[in-house]
Amino acid sequence: MLGLAILALPAQAHGPDFNRGWQFQRSDAPFDTAVFDPDQTEPVDLPHTPRIEPRIVNDQWQGTAFYRKTFIAPKAWRGQTVYLRFEAAMNVARVSVNGTEVTTHLGGWLPFTLDLTPHLRPGGRNEILVRLDNRDNPITGPKPLAELDFSTYGGLYRGIRLFVKPPVHLSDEMLADKVAGGELFVTYPLVTGDQARIAIAASLRNAADREAVVTVQHRLFDGRALIGETRGKQVLLPLSEGDDRQEIRLSAPKLWSPRSPHLYRLVTEVIDDRGRVDRSERQIGVRQFAFTADGQLLINGEPTFLRGVNRHQEYPYVGYALSPQADYRDAKLIKEAGFDYVRLSHYPHSSAFMAAADALGLVLIDAIPGWQFHNPDPAFEAQVLQTCRDMIRRDRNHPSVLAWECSLNESAMPKALVHAFDGVVEQEYPGAFSAGWQNDGYDIFLQARQHRLQHYEQPDRPYVVSEYGDWEYYAQNAGFAQDQWGDLKEAERTSRQSLGAGEAALLRQATNLQEAHNDNFTTPAFADGYWVMFDYNRGYADDLETSGLMSLERLPKFAYDFFRSQRPPEERSERSSSGPMVRIASHWTPRSSLQVRVFSNGEEVELLLNGRSLGRHNPDQGRISSHLAHPPFTFEVDGFVPGTLEARSYIGGALVAQHRVTTPGPATALCSVLDDGGVTPVIGDLIFLRARLLDADSNPVPDQARIVSFAPPKGYVIVGPHTATAEAGTASVLVRVVAARRSQRARLAAAGLRDVGVCPSR
Asked: Nearest CA to 137 among 86, 174, 90?
């Protein structure tokens, strides 16, 4: 099991846990006139969504939400600086402290920070009241919900952090609002295999009314070993700010890359002349991104192609209100699917997901909110430019970020706005790469395959196939009027296939992906991103968008294993499942195709039926000619015979992986599993509780849809409905961890099936 250290956000001088003990009220009244009524509230903890939505969200709630917290500020806080940081609040937030309105913040995907110090009553009772509005907003965008290709949800869905700091401290990068400044900014002026220079810019604040002599000390650790340090001294005037710049030099650095995502631990201490310390700790990765003249990506000097995917951050029922561990599980699933790159579509994702990408070796393109919407109002343009600044300030120290998509996706942006976006990226992170979907001013050109098929020109800059595999198989247009549902193709041709749609549908999806991914290699792209990793809800549609490689409940379709097979077998990771693999894309029932497709990254694959070999294929036999690293193997079976199909994968003549599929009988039983994805659950965490259909011989039964009722194990509560319909033999409900002492045993019920307890490991 993976522990929680890998999930940690940058550590600073925290106060009490501010995510517990809030009062929540939902109101349909207008934002400015809604009245908070403490008698109409319910107790909640953060992260929180304003309404538990159905699995298929066809009427997402929009309105006014109130969050109130009362607390006693310790007397020890007197003379300290107290910051309150909201990690995200959808979408307009008005915050009052002790009855005084302190700020109004626009935008629902990035943090904002308050200096509570002048408003607090140390030793007394204090109140924070947050008024939220998640309705459509023409200044923040991205588009009215009824026309939007995703859902936006609401609430204080990423939690809050309270910091209690001495008078002299590192500033907060969001509150400081300083170009290329605030808190810490770590860059790497020199990166080679022999040496590296780590430049650390610290922004300091003296909140005291006296001059302070300040020591800034940075220490770099590799595990527990101290491998570098530096310190400097300066004088800060009363009520002033200052900057500190220092360097640490390393010999033979361990570099960060997708194959080897090595992270160092940087500990920074700001010490005043009275010995008071403000301490910050974070993980950093030493790496260099560069491009050749012909647009090839170099990571630490190594030519690299990035196979990737787009991700929406949505979970069923809770919308965006994921736990940090759930974000990590998503990143782990993406890495295990064979991907090294994620486009964060179409908005900034959580800091927890960014940290997971750092730890797992996922390269990111970080995007501002935007989708087919541009408002010529100067207030809108000012808002989106500030959002670009805020995103870079929050995420600039993550080694995983390759480029900044400060671009309104699929929106007709004026050239002046494109140049302004590109300028903001250069100001906030000199030398960094901007990226956008218009080929007229960004460092990197992002183009979806459906657009390329209609208007492709040889790019004159680094090029990414930003989306592929979905829309070009769904409709015969470029996707700019998706809510009009024009020119649809027949259902069996599309990549939008639910997990329960059956083998033929899932094989069609996999075929589309193979074809499209193969075609991307005919372009000069240094990366491509399949659309999309997980099924998701949309504002303009009353059904799920099902082009995901996994269902909304994070269960894999056949195409997931296609991408797994594209990762070289020699690549292994301590933090995710990788290495040699083989997978049969069949449930082997009387309705199964007699052309059995097998995904593997081995050199040879043998398929057996009931112990009899049906052939052993090498790379020149039974494969589709293509540019793929590991095209699928296809075996012809003369006729259906019930029993067990077994695939064996070989490298250098040695057996390296096996997979078996057995023809199931009728479902007779159910077993349960708490699917934590190998990440240890903690209180407040969200995981899926699953029920698997079994036949009399305990074989999975993937072709029956049964309604299953769940009673959760001790220490868990169900979020959303207590019943679920099985897809491909598995039913899932979402549960929240509520106690430290927990059991694994759920109670299941379905007509004609017996509950046999916890599923055996497999």
From this structure: 90
C-beta of residue 759 within 8 angstroms of C-beta of residue 671: yes
Residue 622 has pLDDT above 50, yes or no: no
328 vs 345: CA distance, rounded Å: 17
Q: What does residue 354 show for φ and ψ, rounded to 5 degrees?
A: -60, -45
> Which structure tokens are listed for 427?
């100001």
| CA atoms of 242 and 169, how far apart (whole Å) | 10
Single out the residue of 124, 125, 102 nearest to residue 113, CA to CA: 102
**Whole-number pLDDT of residue 522:** 93
- 728 φ/ψ angles, rounded to the nearest 5 degrees: 50, 35
Cis amide linkage into residue 590, ω under 30° from 0: no
Looking at the DSSP bridge assignments, the partners of residue 475 are 488
C-alpha 724/C-alpha 718 separation (Å) is: 12
Where are the alpha helices (H) located in 210-250, listed in sequence order?
none
Summarised one tens digit per residue, pLDDT across range 34-76 is 999 999 999 999 999 999 999 999 999 999 999 999 999 999 9
Return the axis-axis angle of helices 415-428 and 378-395, rounded to nearest 10°. Answer: 30
| CA–CA distance, 337 with 562 (Å, rounded to integer) | 8
Give the global pTM. Answer: 0.96
In sequence order, the 6+-apart residues with CB closer than 8 A to the CB of 103 are 93, 94, 95, 112, 114
For residue 386, give the 3-state DSSP assignment: helix
Least confident residue range of 71-80, 451-460, 654-663, 723-732? 451-460
